[in-house]
Structure formats: structure tokens, C-alpha cells
Amino acid sequence: MIEKIKENINNPEKLEKLYRDDRKSFESGFEKVYSEIENSEMAKFWKIRLDFDKAPDKIKRFSGSDIFIMIAVCLLAGFLIKIPGLFNIDLKNFFFYEKNAGIIVFFGLSLYAIWINRNFSQKRLVIILLTFIVPIIYINLLPSVKDSASINLAYIHLPLLMWCSYGLVFIDFNFKDKSKRIEYIKHNGDLAILGAIILISGGILTGITIGLFQAININIQKFYMDNVVMIGLVSAPVVATFIIKNYTTMTNKIAPIIANIFSPLVLVTLIIYLIAIAISGKDPYNDRNFLLIFNIMLLGVMGIIVFSISETSIIRKQKFNEMILFILSIITVIIDLIALSAIFYRLVEYGVTPNRLAVLGSNILIFVNLVLIMIDLYKINFKEMVIEKVEFTISKYLPVYIIWTLIVIFGFPVIFSMK
Asked: How far apart are CA 162 and CA 411, in angstroms?
């Protein structure tokens, strides 16, 4: 190991591979050989990195103020989600959660992101406040009706807009730095994984708690669900963000593993699913519910591709994973083409409706994005391009989704006269 370190001291990629292949031997060898290579800038970097890993404060790096702010944000989000119960709002006629749940979740995340960024300038805070106040006023002024497709689409797309608003706060409104957008995409992957773990743990705790009290003839189910569970649901993303911020090493190890496991599984599942569609005779052209499921599946696979790319890029080059992602992108493009042809068929056959137009627009945007990703993945596998280029392609395309989301939320109710 000592000779390998000396030979590759100016080769960062090889050093990283040696470290990941046998961490203990690398650390031991580096310590023995450091006196011979200490004048190298790369050696100085590795010295700092390895010493940092041994630091006694590595495990616990958060302060009391971090915990206090996290708890305060969770309590505020919990208070906001409990507004209907506190002020006797009629949920059947006002649709409070449909209109405001997404806003509350991302408002809590944004408040915590402000604390992380430590940017408390008055101008910046006013801008952030407006990005939430305007949608809150708009969505709550829309008529509370169940049979309006354009209004329901506004409800569905509003969380996406709030996700974009949270993204702006997360990157500290640094629009030009595309690496910040990539960091935000990676953060969402980590957030999804840790959030799911927290929710699963919370579900187990809920079952145990309710069961224990039922054993002594005390029924706390309604109180627990209405209060503890409700507040826990809106608090989970903030708690997950706290963990990501303070335990970066742990989250950086979990996410790539999940990505590497899920990508091949999703690929196999999609292949089997397409074969099953052909055998069963099901088609999305005449079955509306099947088309809906088809599009939900497409969105899910698209999300997995983006997540896997962002996580694969932080580990050493892995040809197998990159090839899996390339094949997965090809199959997803085929699925999207089938969905698009079905949507065009239904538009011609049954006419234009808000739902059909929204699904058509979304599928076209996803199709273009997938094609761009597929081209980049082809170059990575066969033209020696680095996978980070795909991340930049994804980050550059994000504003297109924002524009479409704004059109659906603010334009569709006007265009279709609230129908």
C-alpha cells in the first residue's frame, strides 16, 4: 500500500480508489509514508481529510441552537397544520389540507434552510415571505369545489411550486450557480430516504403506543392520530434535514447504496411490466385509469433516474451502474412515447380538458428531459464523458418545470373558467 500511495500521489482518482478498497491499510500506509510526500499538495489534502475523520468531535457537530431552531420550526409547522381544529374550520367545504398542507411542509423546511444559510438580510427575508404569501392568498381564494378539474390541478401542482420555492431558499437564491441546483437535487434524495426511515419508525411507534394503551382499556387512537401523528408528519422533513446537516458522512453512505440497489430492480421490474402489458392486452388508449397509473409510474421512474444519477456521481466511476441507468432511460423514453400517443389519441377522440392538457404538457416536458439524459448517458458509456455532465443537464432543465407549474396553477383556472 505504501508504494501504491507514493506512485499515485498525483492521481486523485487512484488515491480515492485505494482508500475505498482498503481504508485501514490506506490510513496506516499513508501515516508511514507521509514524511516522504508531505511537500505534495495532494498529500496535505489527504492529511487533513484523514485527521478530520479521527477528530473527537466528528460524531457530534451540532450546537444547542441547532436543536432549539429545529424544535421551534417543528412546533410552528405543527401549529399551522392544526389550524382547522383550533379555529373550527369546516374541512368538507373549505379543503384546508388540499390547499395548504404542501405550503406548510415546505414553509417549515424553508425556515430551517434560512437558519442553515445564516442569511438574515431584511431584503432576502421579504422575498422569501412573498414567495409563500402570494401562493397562500391565491390558493385559498380559489373556490372550494370538488368537480373543477382546473382547480384540482392547481391543488396538485401547488406543492411542486412550493418545492421550487424551498429550492430557491436552499440555494440562497444563487440562480447562476448550477452546482447549487445539483446539490439541491442530491439533498432531496437524502431527504426522501431519511424521511421514509423516520416515517416508518414513527409508524411502528404509533402502533406500539396505541396498542399499549388499548391493553389497559384506554382508547387514545383519535387523539394520537389528530395530534401526535399530524404534527409528526409535517415535522419529519425538518428532522430529516437536521440529520442530513449534522451527520453528513452517514447520509453520504446510505443514499448511493440505495441508488445502486434500486436502479437494477426498477429496470427488471419495468421490463417484466412491459412484457406483462403485451400479454394481458391492456392498453392506455381506451382505459383512463390504466393511463393514469401509467403516468404515475413514469413520474416515479423519472424521479428514480434523477436520484440515481445524482447519487452515482459522488462515488467512484461504476460502469455497471452507468449502463443500468442508460438502459433504464431508454425504456422510460419508450414508456413515455406510449403514454404520449395515448394522450394524443384521447385528445382527438374525446376533446380537450384541463386534465388531458396538463398530462400532455407534463409528459412532453418529461420526454424532452429524458431524451437529453439518455443522450448524455450514451456519451458517458461510449464516449468517455463524465457523469457530472448529466447533473448539469438536469439542473439546466429545472426552470422549464417551474414555468409549466406556474402555468397550471395560475393559468388553467383562468383559461378554463374554473371548470
From this structure: 17
State how far the Cα of 213 lies from the Cα of 219, in Å rounded to an integer. Answer: 6
Residue the block writes with cell 432549539: 68
Q: Where are the alpha helices (DSSP H) in 118-170?
A: 122-141, 149-170
What does the pLDDT read at residue 57? 45
Provide the domain count of the chain: 3
d(CA 61, CA 56): 10
Is 199 part of any domain?
Answer: yes
What's the pLDDT at 52? Answer: 67
Give the phi and the psi of residue 95 in degrees, each rounded to 5.
60, 50
Take residue 354 and report the three cell numbers written for it: 384541463
The grid cell for 295 is: 403516468
pLDDT-derived band at 50 (thresholds 50, 70, 90) equals: confident
pLDDT of residue 58: 46
Quote the domain boundaries for residue 266.
247-402
221 and 106, same structural domain? yes
Contacts of 255 (CB under 8 A, 6+ apart): 186, 189, 190, 193, 311
Helix 178-215 with 248-280: angle, nearest 10 deg: 80
Do 9 and 102 fall within a single domain?
Answer: no
Average pLDDT score over residue span 171-185: 81
Beta-strand ranges (E) seen in 267-413 are none
Residue 18 near residue 8, CB atoms below 8 Å: yes
d(CA 142, CA 53): 54
409 found inside a domain: no
Highest mean pLDDT among 28-37, 53-62, 94-103: 94-103
pLDDT digits (tens, 9 = 90+) for 352-403: 888 888 888 988 998 899 899 999 888 888 887 777 778 888 888 888 999 9
Residue type, 289: N
* Distance from C-alpha of 269 to C-alpha of 264, rounded to nearest angstrom: 9
* End residue of a domain, out of 213, 245, 277: 245
Q: Which three cell numbers stand for residue 401?
A: 418545470
Residue 70 contacts residue 239 (beta carbons within 8 Å): yes
- Regarding whether 34 and 93 lie in a shared domain, the answer is no
Cell numbers at residue 409, please?
Answer: 396553477
Q: How far apart are CA 166 and CA 372, in angstroms?
A: 26
Is 16 within the bounds of a domain?
yes
